[in-house]
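Repro:
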Amino acid sequence: MESLIIRITKNLKITKRNLLLSGLAMSVFFIIFLVLNWIHIDKIHLNPLNQFSVGATLNAFEDLILVIAGYLVVSVIPHMIFTKLLLFIEVTMMLGGISYTILALSSGNLLTCILRLIRQLDYIILIYMLSLVSIQTIYNNRFQNYDNYFIRWCSSLNASLSKKWIKLVFLVLVYWVTSTLTLPY
């Protein structure tokens, strides 16, 4: 556990204290989401699994492109705080979705709940990996020998993606398939 915290602090370029405070804040939000969902448990309803259709597949792909584009836009800004803030907000929102799915397990849609949990956990890992690429791009941008900022950014992005592209492709595919099956389009 300690080595995981050290790796995360090193990768996100934050202090251990800030990571623990962020984790504590996310835990508080998770408990709040869990309590709010518990209060409204009678309104929890999961749609049945979708079938693979062109519309659902394109909608899931569109959602995925927007997430990736968001992290690309944030990586253009030469300050890492925006990437870290986006990561915090998205993980916190996904924890709310996980609390909803956990309470929806009582509805009896076990397969749908499992696929939703897989999608939500995959999304958290995906945005973590996109954050790492964004932070590494911002960090590497300082050391590029080009005068034009966008050429330096593209070179830094290429260097950052070269180390993580296989993991990102796998995470994108898992998210795309599970979103196509579980989201109500």
